[in-house]
Amino acid sequence: MNDPAVLDSVPAVNDALEHWRCPDCEYDLHGLPTLRCPECGQTYSREQLQRTHERLAFESATGWRRIPAFFITCFNVLVRPWVFARRVTAGYSFRHGAAFGLICFAGTLVTRATLVTGWAFFVVWWSAALACIVAQSVILATLDRQSWIVSDRHWGHSFLFWLVVGGYTSAVMLTEVVYGPPELALSSFLERDAMRSLFFEFQDARLFVFRLQILSWTVALTIVFVARQRGANKTILFWIRSLVVWLLLWCIYGAAVEYVGLPMHQWLIPIRW
């Protein structure tokens, strides 16, 4: 009679949150008579599920509180990505993620006060960033097999999730208002000794800042990817795969700069509008 799976019934908890999911396999626990997952057999207490299902500050805040919540969410994305990963994988809103991303894009307009730029500069910047978000969402959704197979969801749902994550990780753009976006093209990653020069040569402060910005962005996305792989065996192959994802994200950014940003720059910047 003291079984926590029976005492902490799901209907009582559902008053606080619309859907509960198993932290291990993401099985939907909504409407079940107990907090024992029928898919993987794990049992949880109400407190465990509450910690697991903490929402992002930007999504849970209302009214004027959404302003400080925006900066709290930015801080978690950039400085505490493991907290961001835990919360965004527990639940997310496409509407909130899109709004957050739009605010970050609009925030780059501060660059007008720090750099002498025209509107064409922002068109190039935003186009490359959007291309990067879409490309990373397609690739991460495809590699995110564990999540959309185990939870019986299709690829499109995973793609939508990664679009939302792309909106939130756009917080890194707010750190680019001093120097502009990192100008690191894919070809620079593929040159001989590129990795050594990329990570261990710091003669140029501007390039050093660029590296930190991309590092912050890629680490946040990789940690979210790892958090999504609930139920996967954490073998050496799993961690190698995660490392490959991290390196692939650098290449995605470089490709967006080289094949979207640079061509648009050559086409639009001479117009000076």
Q: Count the strands?
A: 0
Order of helices and strands: HHHHHHHHHHHHHHH
Q: Structural class, judged by helices and strands?
A: mainly alpha
Main β-sheet: number of strands, strand sense, barrel status? none
Helix share of residues? 55-70%
Shape type: globular
Low-confidence stretches: 1-18
Mean pLDDT: 79
Q: How large a portion of the residues is in β-strands, by DSSP E?
A: under 5%
User: Helix count?
Assistant: 15
Rounded to an integer in angstroms, the radius of gyration calculated over CA atoms is: 21 Å
Distance between the terminal alpha carbons, to the nearest Å?
73 Å
The domain tally reads 1
Quickly describe the structure.
The chain is mainly α. The chain has one domain (80-271).
Written overview of the protein:
This protein has 273 residues and is mainly alpha-helical. The protein has one domain. Helix content is 64%, strand content 0%. The chain is globular and about 65 Å long.
How would you summarize the topology of this molecule?
Blueprint: H1 4-7, H2 10-13, H3 46-52, H4 57-60, H5 66-78, H6 81-90, H7 94-107, H8 111-114, H9 119-143, H10 145-150, H11 155-168, H12 186-190, H13 194-200, H14 205-228, H15 236-268
Helix pairs in contact: 5-6, 6-14, 7-11, 9-11, 9-15, 14-15
Descriptors:
single chain; 273 residues; mainly alpha; globular; disordered N terminus
